[in-house]
Amino acid sequence: xxxxxxxxxxxxxNILFAPLDFLRHLELKTWFGANTINWIFMIICACAIxxxxxxxxxxxxxxxxxxxxxxHSFLK
Length: 76
Description:
- This protein has helices at 2-16, 18-26, 31-34, 36-62.
- The protein is mainly alpha-helical.
- It holds the Pfam family DUF6341.
- InterPro entries: DUF6341.
- This is Uracil phosphoribosyltransferase.
- Keywords: Glycosyltransferase, Membrane, Transferase, Transmembrane, Transmembrane helix.
């Protein structure tokens, strides 16, 4: 049973966390390089928010948005 848990440890520490260890060592050389994952996520989120706001504006301008307070059964 001990070998099973050591196998799990080896999988996570030496294989799955290797990219994160690389980023941790890269931080000593360049901060921007180490935070590329964060920058990518921020760009994706910003694009999603812009797309969402554009879609909201399209439905608001078309007048298809149901703004009745009884739109949901729990509000009746």
